[in-house]
């Protein structure tokens, strides 16, 4: 009897040991998968496509140089060893991906972000307007048909310049369409990086009359403050603007397409169109850029919101949002915050496929097939994550009157892989147009 008992015990221990090894093995083989996932996401950026950099170059695999990597101190000690290299790798890939659009502007530093401090300060939401454009919307041409508002930071002078000279130009265009532009800024966080930043903005305001500067720190998590102060400014200084485009400075915006989309829209109706993200879940991974702890937002999903590239709303909606946002507690991610305000006025934002938050799906993974085709971009309204030269290039390519698109059906004109997608897309757009796409695209209220 005694023997049998011992045998059973040993068997149990053995089974447990085998299970433990299996678990460890499963964990180790999982980690590299995570790393690759990150990299693949990063490399789908449009930047790669435009610059023609082959995928391999973009996310160069980490060479076996582990001695050079600075010692990595994991916060949680129980993480298995095998995770270290892949973690470093994915972070490196990520920061490379973000380089042109984010690093120069506002790179969130999550590891050190103090959410408790955020909670303590979040009732402080009235900051002084340091540089104003009080007559922006009351000039001789009257209130703008379209007001372009672009989030910017002081150091991004080159981005403001390229926008001023390309898609963000002011003026009265065909059919008496009056377009105005403002840049939205806060006080730079690191003023030693650009001494005289205040002089720069002063001169820019004097020369271009398009700077709005508020007295809060220009950080990633203060973009929500930018949102509410902009809406406040609309209420005070530009309440008669018919439509408002609000977006980032690293986008190319096809204003013509947006104006075409707005044709026939009644101006006293609600309208909110963009790359709408529905049922997104808050990210609880600490190392994510969008990490939100549960004590900041406890619910499982976010309300529908427009992705960061840009969106269009009617002036009517902006004034309603201005009031609604006053009732909503500050939330660190500005896009989601605006989604909360939309929910409050019970307005379902409209998704339009011309708005792309994260570049474009590539036609092929093979580098030699990634040919830049301006016709493809001509159909879009907002393209995200572009560098200054890319914005300028895009503008010139699409302004080029020699550019012939689907009227010329020479099969040799387009790269092999793209043609099918292209024509399918054009057909889809043609269909929408024939449908008089107001009905399909916009909410009726
Ligand atoms: C501020 O910018 C300067 C110059 O670019 C840099 O040397 C310094 O480390 C920055 N300081 C902080 C706190 O980021
Ligand atoms: C936002 O700006 C205020 C005022 O400058 C500052 O006190 C606060 O720390 C900033 N918050 C974030 C999250 O950067
Ligand atoms: C918005 O503007 C209207 C009209 O000027 C004014 O009556 C109202 O008080 C303003 N609302 C806020 C919250 O400032």
Task: Please give the structural blueprint.
Layout: H1 2-43, H2 46-51, H3 55-58, H4 83-103, H5 115-121, E1 129-131, E2 146-151, H6 157-165, E3 171-173, E4 177-187, H7 197-208, E5 211-217, H8 223-237, E6 243-248, E7 252-253, H9 255-262, E8 272-277, E9 305-314, H10 315-326, H11 334-344, E10 350-351, H12 374-378, E11 382-383, H13 388-399, H14 416-434, H15 438-441
Parallel strand pairs: 2-4, 2-6, 4-5, 8-10
Antiparallel strand pairs: 1-5, 3-4, 6-9, 7-11, 8-9
Bound molecules: 2-acetamido-2-deoxy-beta-D-glucopyranose
Tell me the number of helical segments per DSSP (H or I, 4 or more residues long): 15
Shape: globular
One letter per element, helices H and strands E, the order comes to: HHHHHEEHEEHEHEEHEEHHEHEHHH
Indicate the CATH architecture of one domain.
Answer: Alpha-Beta Complex
CATH homologous superfamily descriptor of one domain = Spore Coat Polysaccharide Biosynthesis Protein SpsA, Chain A
CATH classification, class level of one domain: Alpha Beta
User: Biggest sheet, open or closed, and with what strands and sense?
Assistant: 9 strands, mixed
Instruction: Assign the CATH topology of one domain.
Output: Spore Coat Polysaccharide Biosynthesis Protein SpsA, Chain A
